[in-house]
UniProtKB/TrEMBL annotation:
<dbReference type="InterPro" id="IPR058912">
    <property type="entry name" value="HTH_animal"/>
</dbReference>
<protein>
    <recommendedName>
        <fullName>Helix-turn-helix domain-containing protein</fullName>
    </recommendedName>
</protein>
<feature type="domain" description="Helix-turn-helix">
    <location>
        <begin position="2"/>
        <end position="58"/>
    </location>
</feature>
<dbReference type="Pfam" id="PF26215">
    <property type="entry name" value="HTH_animal"/>
</dbReference>
Amino acid sequence: MKWQSYVPLSYKRSVITGMIHRAIHICSTYILLEDELNNITEITTKNGYPRSFVDKLIGMKLSKWYTGSTINNKSNNNEKKKICIEVPFINNATKAFKNDLRKFSTQIRPDIELLVIEKPPPSVQTSFNLKDKIPNYLQSDIVYG
């Protein structure tokens, strides 16, 4: 996915963290891991990603892996109820709306954690039918099972 793609930043972040996660779990030595992380950095820079963005994600993922912070240490008593809301992605307008919505929800219901999911607009391809309709007289009347 190119950096200039019109998708939420979370999608771009997920693409890179997915590659880093795969590298960490598949590479058997630190030398291979370093080579793979350099490969990921090279691929993402060729796709227009800022080097600082990629390095930050690599650092965060490696720190999380080294410290083993995948274990959830939160107590179950203080967990907030999560509510997901899907909003259309319209670049800066979505960011502002998401921030306002979160502020509003914490003022009204502090016991709820609002998860705002940015959904990109449907692609042009979904608007068109790629297959032509076959007329009834040309169909074979055979049912495949």
